[in-house]
Design a protein that fits this description.
Helices cover 29% and strands 21% of the residues. By secondary structure, it is of the alpha+beta class. The chain has a domain of 177 residues: Alpha-Beta Complex (Nucleoside Triphosphate Pyrophosphohydrolase). The strands form 2 sheets. Strands 1, 2, 3, 4, 6, 7 and 9 form a 7-stranded mixed β-sheet that branches. Strands 5-8 form a two-stranded antiparallel sheet. Strand 6 and strand 7 form a beta hairpin. The relative contact order is 0.23.
């Protein structure tokens, strides 16, 4: 599960014309996402959906962080994923990225974190709820570093974290999160491995492989995970993905909904 040695060719260096055609064919069979409320990814969290919520508006929306750890592989872009155990009361049995909710300790450690471009972080989340908190972005970085180390044993450099997306759990579920997604290159992560009790397996997988398995019913992905993986599938290398311009428009879905239909 360690980062591939530098002498292993990346996909950019090994793809010939035939290989590119094969990759294009793989991408073409990745299924499209259906309107909110009707896509398989909207129905994966069965444990949560079976619980009746007496007052949906009273369910607190808790800030959380999830980290997309990326590396180049022979089958294209790879990401570190966790297969959550089926006994969890939220996102049971689904594939997720490492992460978790913001804890008080993160608020305490946040002021000690420094990055070369604080304005970029503040700007990235300017449309998100965290912008209402003074330097709330530092708290998110602290949460990302803590959660990744707790769940994977990996020590990451917060300066390598790239703000990527913001999704809010739909109204009507017993647990709701305002989740801030970051992307980071594996070169900035030291020794990621499986060590969380919330998952039965953790592994590096190709993005297209995960999407193919989901389409064939072998894996379950929640809507944010599915959408972000589809976006990553457009990139050939980590460098290409992290260099892409990213404007974060928070996704605050209403479930059920006909948006996108």
């Amino acid at each position: 599960m360690s980062t591939p040695p530098s002498n292993v060719p990346t996909v950019a260096g090994i793809l010939g014309d035939n290989d590119k055609q094969v990759r294009a064919k793989v991408l073409s069979v990745i299924r499209d996402i259906k309107p909110e409320g009707s896509d398989p990814s909207d129905l994966t969290d069965i444990a949560s959906r079976d619980r009746v919520v007496a007052d949906a508006a009273a369910v607190p929306v808790r800030p959380a962080v999830s980290v997309l750890m990326l590396r180049d592989g022979r089958e294209g872009l790879e990401v570190f994923i966790q297969h959550r155990v089926s006994t969890m009361d939220f996102a049971a049995g689904v594939v997720v990225f490492p992460g978790g909710r913001v804890d008080p300790i993160d608020v305490e450690t946040a002021p000690s974190l420094t990055v070369p471009d604080p304005a970029a972080h503040a700007s990235a989340w300017s449309q998100s709820a965290i912008a209402e908190e003074s330097e709330g972005w530092r708290v998110l970085l602290a949460t990302a570093a803590r959660e990744v180390e707790e769940e994977t044993g990996a020590v990451l450099d917060p300066t390598g974290l790239r703000p990527w997306a913001n999704w809010v759990t739909p109204l009507g579920l017993p647990k709701r999160f305002d989740t801030y997604f970051y992307a980071i290159a594996a070169s900035e992560v030291v020794s990621a491995q499986h060590q969380t009790t919330e998952a039965h397996t953790s592994e590096w997988r190709s993005v297209t492989g995960i999407l193919t398995d989901e389409g064939e019913g072998h894996l379950k992905l929640m809507r944010p995970t599915f959408v972000l993986l589809r976006e990553l599938a457009d990139f050939t290398t980590v460098a290409e993905a992290l260099a892409a311009e990213r404007i974060i428009d928070p996704v605050r879905p209403e479930f059920p909904s006909r948006r996108g239909s």
